[in-house]
Amino acid sequence: MGPQPSNSLYQGKRVALVLGSGGARGYAHIGVIDELEARGYEIVAISGCSMGALIGGIYAAGKLQGYRDWVRRLDYFDVLRLVDVTWSPMGAMRGSKVMSKLETLIGDTRIEDLAIPFTTVATDLNRQREVWFQSGSLLDAIRASIAVPGVITPVHRGDQVLVDGGLLNPLPITPTVSAYADFVLAVNATAHSPRPITLEELLPVPAEEANPDTPAITNEIANSPQLTGWMDDVKAAARRMLDGFGSGSNDEDDTDDIDERSRGKRAWGRLDMILASFDITQASLAKYKIAGYPPDVLIEVPKTVCGAYEFHRAESLIALGRHLAVEALDRFEGRAPSGWGDRAVTAGPGDVNAEGNAESDTRSDAKAQGKRR
Fold first, then answer.
1. Using CA atoms in the order 74, 78, 84, 90, what is the torsion angle rounded to 10 degrees?
2. Does residue 140 have an active-site annotation?
C-alpha cells in the first residue's frame, strides 16, 4: 500500500522490513529497528541480504541486543583479528571467526522456528539466480548471503555455489509484498548520492561524539607491525586469487601505487577494486528494485559514509540509522511534510537534492510509483 496523507497521523503499526546489503553500513539497520520499536511498531516480516540478512536474522532470533553489545566494543584491531585469511582461489577470507561468534548467539536456530517470518537472499553462481532461504539453518543462510564474491569464500550446497545475495538483489523487497503488514519499510545501505556525503555530515552530532569509546585510527596504528603484517597477508591472498587477471609484476604494481600517492590520488589495490566495483553494482541494482516494487518508506544510507569493511564504526552507524529513521517516520506519520509529492517517503542522500542527478532520480521514482498504483 502507498503512504498515507502527510497531514494525518498514520495509525498502522504492522511493518514489513527490508534490510539491504552494504557491509559495515548495515549497522544502520540496528538504529532503524531501535526507532521502530521505540514508536511501538510491530515488525511482522523481515527480508534481508548480506549484512541485512545478518542483522535481520539475529533480530528475528531475539538476539540483537547481544550482537549490538559485541559490535559496539569492537575497535580497529578487534576487527582485524576476526579476519581469517585463506589461500583459497575462491576468496581471500573464510569468515569462520565471525560465524563462530554468531553461533554463540543464535546456535542451531532454524528459520521456520523464528517468531517473525524471515527471508534471506543468496546467489547461486552455477544457475545464475537468486536463492531464498525461508527454512533450514539460520546460521547457514546468513553465511551464504554474506559471501562477497572473491572476498569471502562461497558456500557449497549440493551442486550450488552460493555467494552474496547482493550480486543479484541487494534490496530484496519482493519477499515482503505478500506479508500481512500495514506498510513496507526498506533500508538501502548502498545508496547513490548527488555528491560524496560523509558520516559526519549526516549525523546530528559529530561522529566522534556519537562514538567516544572507539579510538581514532592514528598514523601510529596504521603503520604498526600488526596491521602491516595483516595487510600483507590479505594482499598476498588477493594477489594469488587474482593472478589470472593478467596484471603486471609485483614490483611494477608497487611502483604504480607510489606514483599514485605522489600525485595525491588514492592508490587502488586489487581488493579495493573488487569491493568498490561490487558497491557500485549493488547501488545500481537497488535503484531498479526500488523502481519495480517501491516501498512505502525508504531509508537510504549513502555508500560514501564509510567503507564496506569499517566494522569498528558500529556506534556511529547505529546512530545514523536511527537518525534517518526518525526523519523518515516523522514524515510518514505526518509530523513533518515529506516534500516528495506522491512518491514513497524517503530519508537519506536524496534529501540533499542539490544537483540535477537527484532531481532526475526523484522524477524516475515518482513515475515508477505511479505505475504501481
1. 50
2. no
